[in-house]
Amino acid sequence: MTDSAIRIIHITVKSDRVIAQVEVADERHAYTTPSLITALLPAYPHLLEHACVNGCGTTFGAVARRTSLPHLLEHMAIENQVRAEADAEGAIPNGQRTQAQGDESHYQGARGAAVSPATYMGKTRWTDRARRMAHVELSYADDLVALAALRDAARDLNAAIALEEATHP
Ligand SMILES: [Zn+2]
Prior knowledge:
Blueprint: E1 6-13, E2 17-24, H1 34-40, H2 69-89, E3 105-109, E4 118-128, E5 133-139, H3 143-167
Antiparallel strand pairs: 1-2, 2-5, 3-4, 4-5
Bound molecules: zinc ion.
């Protein structure tokens, strides 16, 4: 096992979004790798379909295999929020979740036809690249769900990296 690769240091809850201050412990984990994404896809099957504004395309899939680790955390947290909402609405099959079109990094969770869909947006930027500090911003429908989504995303990401390091030291 390795120490946590990514750590949430502080979370600020605003009226329209949560802002997580995160730190990547070591430079070797500052960016994602193809094998890390492959390892996460079974638990986060919609990751690559998320709408995302980036230099390479319109989906997170365009950059997922080589982007900052905090950016990956953002999209995992968004997927956890969509999942939590779907669970709360009562089991919606994965295939019925739809991807939003738009100009920000976001993912739209489809709900029952009578309920307007919630759209989650996120944004990630390094605040201190040398110290590997970043801000991850997430919109939310329920702040407690957003906090849990971030916490679970960090836990799953750290577990996947630890497993990778144990398998390919
Ligand atoms: Zn993105």
